[in-house]
Amino acid sequence: MKAIISTQYGSPDVLQFAEIAQPMPQADEVLIKVHAATVTPSDCAFRKADPFIIRLMYGLTKPRLAVPGVEFAGEIVAVGSAVTTFKAGDRVCGISPDRFGAQAEYLTLPVSKPLTLMSPHQSYAEAVGIVDGAATALLFLRDVAKVQRGQRVLINGASGAVGAYAVQIAKYYGAHVTGVCSAANVELVRSLGADAVIDYTREDFAKSGQAYDVIFDAVGKRTYGQCQRALTPQGIYMTTVPTLGTAVALLRTARSRGKRAGFTTAGLKQNRANLDFLTELFDQGALRAVIDRCYPLAQVAEAHRYVETGRKKGNVIITVAEAA
After folding, report:
1. 189 and 179 Cβ atoms separated by less than 8 Å
2. Three-state SS for 149?
3. pLDDT per residue over 203-231, tens digit each?
4. Using CA atoms, how far apart are residues 103 and 83, in angstroms rounded to an integer?
């Protein structure tokens, strides 16, 4: 089968389009013909091994997992002998959080991992896009911040893959949402339901005098210290990028009854129930996919280069196989 492989850390040039053996499902696994995958900032970080902790987790001198890619959508073509929850022909989407492998024509996954049936109304690109950004936004907003109706929520990076879905999910929970983005993306963020939009090139939300119950930095550009004054007395700051500064803020505010920092390892805490919930939101019209660009599998390196510009809007999709 065709796949992207990476046998060393480095620039996008380390990503090779190659022919490798097709996997076979074990008793508790399904074999999925992948139709769509994603390239995210996390994929770029794993490719570069930056931050260094990636080397400690996934290979000190070279990647332990040769085929990258975490989020996917596709069709089950075979099931293991112990699988009863899925069958061949099912259209599914999901996450391969600890074994990767989505940037290939075929992927095997244990059914205990985050995997669910797609909506019949979704394209493969829409399904994988929502799995990419919305699943992360859901855990931060629902589980960490516990967003409530009437709260004031600010999303920094509101046009990105996580931020675009965070705007929609915060609105679903009844919050007043302020999105922060560049001037070029103001209309997009408004169309997602934001009540107010701040162009960060013209205004610094942290110095505007406004206070928010939740500040969600979906792009890892602002620190807790920078945002602290813009939080309400019991406000929470969250970021998707774990840095040393984030760790210090988490420790310092862990027992606080006032302003605090929050974080979650979203990829490792996902489950089928979360994906089912997001699919329901899609069917209700409360959540729509935000897709910027699509690249064929052979051009994954170009997708990485684009993602690293920091200018993408929503998801960057890898088209692995055309839908029948």
Report:
1. yes
2. coil
3. 999 999 999 999 999 998 999 999 999 99
4. 24
Residue 191: partners with Cβ closer than 8 Å, 6 or more residues away? none
Q: Which residues pair with 117 in a beta bridge?
A: 92
CA pair distance 191, 228, nearest whole angstrom: 28
117 closest CA partner among 83, 140, 86, 148: 86
Query: Does the pLDDT of residue 272 top 50, yes or no?
Result: yes
Is residue 109 classed exposed, middle or buried when 0-12, 13-18 and 19+ CB atoms within 10 A define those classes? buried
> In this structure, how many other beta carbons lie within 10 angstroms of the beta carbon of residue 35?
25
Residue reference for tokens 């799995």: 131
> Do strands 212-217 and 231-239 pair parallel, antiparallel, or not at all (unpaired)?
parallel
The CA-to-CA distance between both ends of the chain, in Å, stands at 18
With a CB cutoff of 8 Å and minimum separation 6, the contacts of 1 are: 19, 20, 21, 22, 104, 105, 106
Contact between 80 and 25 (Cβ < 8 Å): yes
Distance from the Cα of residue 163 to its chain's centroid? 9
Ramachandran angles phi, psi of 291, nearest 5°: -110, 125
Instruction: Give pTM, 2 decimals.
Output: 0.93
Task: Check residue 322 and give its pLDDT.
Answer: 55
Name the pairing type of β-strands 2-6 and 15-19: antiparallel
> In the chain, what's the furthest Cα-to-Cα distance?
60
